């Protein structure tokens, strides 16, 4: 609701046949909607100001998903499932329903409540492109920067200084294995969930943004190569 008002999508005065008064609209909040008026900080008519609430929306969704992940894991632990599969299935359902709702609720509102294809296309283009850029930045560029900073190399050098052995090959092997063993495990579930959410964008709203499929193919290829690199250089290798 906050995002809808800040992006200027809720405008009762534009449809007086449906909304006689501004307060008749259930999601209209004048205090928030004024930020999207012409000349204000989130001017919906501006070519760049209109993207500010989109960035805020994506950041808020990311934060909420991280918080809910902890909540979902705690709730699933309390359920005390008999098997690991039952535990994982329950966690998957909780996280998917929450994150799918976060991702699609505004799009469904614009498509089936407002019935405005122009607003739907604008929101889909903004959210999909920003989220794709965010994924490429976090999943591909950030691990590369961390690896280039030489975290493992620094740790390896420290381990060599602490090790007193005449066999240099044994030192290299043992220290390298120690460094690799201390790496973070590769999280597969988040990648699968992101792919599923992306598939929903492409399939559910293809008519509003046909180019989304081609962007998704390109982004998935880049992320596929980045994941292969992370498995061998950044994360703990799968067992």
Automatic annotation (TrEMBL):
Q: Where does it reside? A: Membrane
Any single Pfam family the record assigns to this protein:
Anoctamin
* Anoctamin transmembrane domain sequence ranges: 47-238
* Segments traversing the membrane: 199-222
Write out the GO cellular component annotations. Answer: membrane
Q: How is it placed in the membrane, per its record? A: Multi-pass membrane protein
Record carries keyword Transmembrane:
yes
Q: Does the keyword Membrane apply?
A: yes
Tell me the keywords, alphabetical order.
Answer: Membrane, Transmembrane, Transmembrane helix
Q: A GO molecular function for this record?
A: chloride channel activity
Superkingdom assignment: Eukaryota
Location (main, coarse): membrane
- The molecule here is called Anoctamin transmembrane domain-containing protein
């Amino acid at each position: 609701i906050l995002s809808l008002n800040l992006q200027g999508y809720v405008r009762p005065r534009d449809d007086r046949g449906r909304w006689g008064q501004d307060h008749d609209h259930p999601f209209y909040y004048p205090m928030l909607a004024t930020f999207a008026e012409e000349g204000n900080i989130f001017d919906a008519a501006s070519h760049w100001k209109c993207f500010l609430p989109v960035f805020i929306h994506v950041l808020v969704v990311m934060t909420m998903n991280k918080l809910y992940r902890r909540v979902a894991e705690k709730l699933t632990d309390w359920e005390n499932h008999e098997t690991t599969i039952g535990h994982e299935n329950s966690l998957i359902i909780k996280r998917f329903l929450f994150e799918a709702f976060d991702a699609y609720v505004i799009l469904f509102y614009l498509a089936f409540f407002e019935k405005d294809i122009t607003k739907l296309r604008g929101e889909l283009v903004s959210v999909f492109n920003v989220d794709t850029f965010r994924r490429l930045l976090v999943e591909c560029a950030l691990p590369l920067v961390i690896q280039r900073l030489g975290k493992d190399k620094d740790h390896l050098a420290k381990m060599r200084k602490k090790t007193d052995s005449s066999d240099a090959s044994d030192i290299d092997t043992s220290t390298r294995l120690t460094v690799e063993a201390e790496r973070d495990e590769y999280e597969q579930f988040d990648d699968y969930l992101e792919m599923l959410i992306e598939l929903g964008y492409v399939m559910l709203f293809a008519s509003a943004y046909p180019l989304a499929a081609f962007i998704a193919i390109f982004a998935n290829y880049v992320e596929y190569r980045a994941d292969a690199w992370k498995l061998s250089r950044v994360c703990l290798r799968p067992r």
